[in-house]
Structures are given as C-alpha cells and as structure tokens.
Amino acid sequence: MNVLKGSFYVFFQSYKKQNIIFWCILFSIVFLSFFLDSFFGKYISFAITISIPVYIFYSTMASKILNRTMPYFLKLGLSRIQYVLHLGLFFLAWSIAGAFIIACTHEIITFFSELLDVKDIIIIHPVLLFDTTQPFMLIVALDFVLLLFCLISGLLLNVVFYRLGTIGGYSFIGILALIPIVMVIFEWYTPLFEVLSKASVFSILSSLLLMTFLIYSVITGALRKASAIPA
Amino acid sequence: MIIEARNVSKSYTHKQALENINFTIEGPKIIGFLGHNGAGKTTFLNMLAGLFSATEGEICVNGENVFNAPHVLSEICFVAESGNFQDEMTVAQSLKANSFFYPKWDEDFAKELLQVFALNPKDKVKSLSKGMVSALGIITGFASHAAITIFDEPYIGLDAAGRNTFYDLLIEQQAENPRLFLLSTHLIDEASALFEEILILHEGKLLLQKDADEWPQHVVAVKGSPNHVEQAIEGFEVIYKQSFMHEMTAVLFTNGKEIEAENITIGSVSLQDMLVYLSKKKKVGSTR
Amino acid sequence: MTHSLNNEKPIFQQIRERIEDAILDGHLQPEDRIPSTNEFAKEYQINPATAGKGVNELVDKGVIYKQRGIGMFVSPQARTILTLERKDSFFTQHIEPLKKEATRLGISDEELQNMLQRG
Lengths: 231, 288, 119
Known about the structure:
Chain C: Pfam families: GntR. Chain C: It comes from Lysinibacillus contaminans. Chain C: Keywords: DNA-binding, Transcription, Transcription regulation. The complex is a heterotrimer of chains A (231), B (288) and C (119). Chain B contains 10 helices and 14 strands. By secondary structure, chain B is α/β, with parallel strands linked by helices. In chain B, strands 6-7-8-3-9-10 form a 6-stranded mixed beta sheet, sandwiched between helices. In chain B, strand 1 (2-11) and strand 2 (16-26) form a beta hairpin. Chain C is mainly alpha-helical and 119 residues long. Helix content of chain C is 62%, strand content 8%. In chain C, strand 2 and strand 3 form a beta hairpin. In chain C, helix 1 (11-24) crosses helix 3 and helix 2 packs across helix 3 (48-61). The B-C interface holds B 29-30, 164, 167-168, 171-172, 174-175, 192-196, 212-213, 215-216, 267-271 and C 5, 7-12, 37-38, 41-42, 44-50, 53.
C-alpha cells in the first residue's frame, strides 16, 4: 500500500508542472475566445474546443512516460508487474480528473454564455455526435474513456519504441499507417462507418474500454521482463 | 545478508559483458567492487538491483532470485552513477518519495544529511550541479538503511571535502548500524583502507575475491635481476612483468604459496597499482 | 596527512603497531584510556572491523584490557610485554638488513662496530 502511495506521489510530482502549464494555456485560450466571442459574436460565430487539445496532450505525455519513470521505479525496487499496475491506476485517476475538468469547463462556459446571452458559441466535443444536449455525466464518461484510450495508446507507442528501439518503433508506425490504406483498398470503411453510426454511445464506449483493456494486457505482457535500459 | 552470483553471464548484441561469474559475499561488510572501465562492474550491479535479468545464471539474495522480487529489492538500495531521481521533482520531494519505497527509511537522518551536504530542499533535481546530485544519491543510500546498499561511483563531481564526508559517513554508519555496503569506485587509493573484502572484475570475469587483510600477502611484486626473478616466479600466475636497467619487476598472485628464491626483494602492491597493471596487461593482450 | 597509513602491511597490523609505539614511547601510560575502535576507524578512515582486529590482537596479548561499557585501557604490564617482543624481532628486522647492506657496500665487521659505537 505504501509503495502504491509512493508511486502516485512520484507520478503526481513529476507531471504536476506539465499539467499546470497545459491547463493554464488551454484556459487562457478558451477565456480569450469566449471574450472575443462575447464582443464580436454578432459578426462571426466562434467555435471553442477544450477536449481535443487534452486528448493530444495526454497522448504525448503517455508516449514518453515509460522512459521517464520505469527505470526510476525499478531502481526503487518495484517489480515490472507492480509498475504497470500502478501506472494503470494512475492513468485511471488522471483520466477521471481530466474528464471532470473538461465537463466542468463546458458547464461554466454554457452558464456564462447564457448569462451574458451569447447565443452562437459552439463547443466542439465528440459528444455532439451522440447527444446535442450535452448532458454532464455523458461528457464525463465519454472523456474518461477517450482520455484513458489516449493514455494507453500513447503508452503502447512508448512500449514499442522502448522494447524494439528506433527502427522497430518507426516500423510499427509504418504498419499503423498502412491500415487505413488497406482499408481503402478493400473498402472496409463502409461497413465500419455503418456500424459506428448505428451503434449507441454505450456500445461504442464499452468497445473502446475493451480495446483499452486489451492494449493494457499486451503492454503488461511486453513489460513483464523488460530491462530498465531502453533498447 | 548473503549475495550469491551463480554462473552469471550477460551478453548484449555486440559484446559479452559478463562471463560466468560465481561468488558469494556475506555481510555486514564494506566491499570494494573494482575493475577498470568496461570490466562489467556496472552491468553486474544493475542486475543485482534487479534492473535487468542475466542472460544466463542468477543472482540471489538470501537464496532468492532478485529479478522482479519486490520484497527482496526493498532491502537493496542502489545508488547508480546517474539517473537516480526525477528531474521535475525537488530535493525534498525526492527524499519523500524514497520514504515510501525503503521500509527502514530514516527521515531525520536524511534531513541532517541535507545540511551536511548543504543542499537546498526546494531546489529541483534538474537545477542541481553534478556534485549536488551525487550528494543526494549519497543521502539516499545512507538514509535508506537498506541491508544491502550499493554505491556505484557515488561521488562524481564531489570535491575532496565532500568525498571525505562520504568516507566518514560510511565508517560511522558501519559502526552504528552495519550493512552490506558495495562500493564501486575509481578513486581506489582514497577508499582502499575502507574495504574489508575486495572483488576485482577483469574483462567480464571475476579475477579475484580476497579479504583486505590477505591482500599484501596475496599480491606481491618481486624485484631483482631477470634470472633470479624468472626463477622465483616460475609456477606462479604473473599479471605483469617489466625490465628496466637489468632489474626485473614481476607482479604475481601467490595463492598462499611462499616464494622461495634468493637475491630478490618481495614487496606489496597497492590496489591502485594492481588495477594499473591489469589495464597494461589488457593492452599487451590486445596488440598481440 | 602525516599519520596516513601505507599499504606495505595489512592495515590492522599498522594500527596495532601505532598503539604499541605510543606505549613504548611513553605517550600512553599504564591505565590510560585508548580510543575506541570507531574512533580509530574515523581517525584513519579505515574500516571499523579492521581497526577492531588490530586492537583485539593487543587485548589478546594482554597489552590492553577492556572494561565493559567504559572502554579500553593500557595494562600495567604493557611495556614489559612489548619490550620483550620487540627485542625478539629486533634482530631479524634491523640487524640482518644492516649486515646485508654493509656487505653490499664492502664495510668490514670492524668498521661496522666502530660505526655502531659512534652512532
């Protein structure tokens, strides 16, 4: 238990500064857009996005986390399984926090735009695909799953680079880039989009969660005997 | 605490770092883990700390393989040459983090040592000088109270006064609460009097393991005229041989045997000199 | 440092000799307290166990004695024990090398005796 607390302490302290900087920049941009919108909204309409930068930020953070923290934790005496477990729990907490911040920001912006009677402000968020009324809990749930997915995908990329080195890592990216091309050639995209457009928000969320869990299992397997020194 | 290396080998893609290492060490004791650059010291210490696994064989502490074994590893504190801390964390945070992972962490002692080494707890690790990071590593090593504490080149960037403080701490700690200290260093002259036992790695192999007390009898320099020296050293393992002005010097292992010969002088060889001779031997070997 | 140890002999032996010399020179009198093992270790920057080994040899010989919880002291008969022991080794350690060097330099026994009387 003490070790888990310690891991959280280290993750938190190591990523505190980056998080603070990121959210400060994001909020100032949002605030600026909102400000501009409330003055010039009569002439042009503004679109604000909060969640998408967060997805990108989380992915980039996760794509470097292994190199930054794994050697350190192994030196402190964690087993690799413990490390992956603690990292997974930290990712859960981090995504929940991110999801709440995003949803609250949405609420605040909506509240102020109604208060100041700014009508034509649009907040771009994936939830619009499913529900235009943007219920709070749906935003939280959607963002939680998406952020977790971003973190795990970033981590997967890091694991590939960590285990296989630069050449292996870029080959992996190359193979990933091939998938859409193959999809176009074999016209897999039509049935895929059909399924996606028909599916409910919950089936999409649960399949994303399942995928996240599968990737996490692969990562656990890949790191079970990993060296503290990247390939 | 017993550390056992059983047929440990480690090979990387292009080279063999360690070859069939076997030894047992038992503490509390201060052990010198020596060898010149590339001898495989750091590779071995990394494996002892569980950072990667051996290609063959195993390293056991109290009979248990250390790889992926948290309850064994919590008894081991490994202070490496670099990369012991998170750049974004402050000195105080780094020490606090340690307290979660080392069950016997001594917080008061850590605070006291911060003052001894004049570190500012609010400084970020990435803003520290090399010597200050080394000092933080030394503090971690001592305050961890880990039964096995490994210092791999712990004082890079520290001045003579800082190193002296380190030696004093080592002596004090060994007297007050003895542990198994493994010290790997290049400043052998300074540290040699601290070792109770010495292990020397040479080109990935264990060259010797000796009690410090046995050292002067075990490794000797024979001097005299070439004929006499050649006669005297016959049958011994010679590490180094050199002639100058019709006087020959040969450094050899006695393995407990007496050297019986006339007209020669037998002197002792310091640890530092021994390692220099070893590296010369290596060069001679490679040009052949 | 003037008191630094060398590597010609095992360190514990050098520690033992330091104490012996101090007793023979009269710096340490019978019943004087001797520094603890740890004090020796710190002073010479050596391993505490090594220092202990040197001190214990003197305890075994009866040159110093331990009093539980108080410390170690020079025993009354210390000087006598050490003088006897040193006389034994005087011949091998000093006379033999002296003769050897004299032969090398071609100094006759007579000359050597004269020198000894002068010195």
